[in-house]
Amino acid sequence: MQPPAPSPVQPTTLAPSLRLRDRPIDILLIALFSAFTVTSLISDLLPTLGVDISAPSSNFFVNSNWWYAHDTDPLFAHPPVWMRIVTGLSAFLYMPFYIVLVVSLVRGWNWIQLPSVIYATMIASITGIIVFGVEFFGEAQWRTPNPVKFLAFNLPYVLVPILLLVRMRKPLPFARRF
Predict the structure, then answer these.
(1) Looking at the whole model, is its pTM more than 0.70?
(2) What are phi and psi of 112, to 5 degrees?
(3) Helical pair 156-167 and 24-39, crossing angle rounded to 10 deg
(4) What is the SS3 assignment for 4?
(5) Which residue of 76, 122, 133, 138 has the fewest CB atoms within a 10 Å radius of its CB?
(6) Secondary structure tally for the chain: helices H, strands E
């Protein structure tokens, strides 16, 4: 009896990961997802926990969120329950993923490929379709009055995951430069 032929999806030999300095796109992704970790903690945790960010505050984090949302993002400033679930995903699911992803990018751990693809499709869908759809085409009360500022703050949360998805498009992502 012969062993089964190797799957075309799984390579028969594992190529070693390139050094981080030989993977410049990963250095960029490390910087971006490190920043996403911080924004998940500072921005998304507050509305998830029910902290009111609809008025200025002496608290730096609340005031920072108010500064962003008061003239840009009524959905974020006055989140309905479903939006608090979206921010909760960021605070409690994506943030830990960002930490694991950053370590995986630094170390060249290929197993992060599938979780990265799942994350990228999930966040691009949620942000790109649900949030942007509501902010640009939804009810008048949720539409952004400041599309340029809204896109400046939120478009990276669609574009960077798509970049990660492209990066992780083939097996053994860390055995190649891009």
Answers:
(1) yes
(2) -75, -10
(3) 140
(4) coil
(5) 133
(6) 10, 0
More confident residue, 13 or 74: 74
Distances (CA, A) of 8 to 2, 116, 156: 17, 20, 34
Q: Please give the C-alpha separations between residue 141 and each of 22, 45, 64, 116, 146, in angstroms, as whole numbers.
A: 48, 23, 22, 34, 13
Both structure tokens of 34: 């490190």
Q: Inform me whether the pLDDT recorded for 173 exceeds 50.
A: yes
Q: Which of 153, 159, 101 is nearest to 128 (CA)?
A: 159
Q: Which of 27-43 are b and which e, b meaning 16 or more Cβ less than 10 Å from the residue's Cβ?
A: eebbebbeebbebbeeb
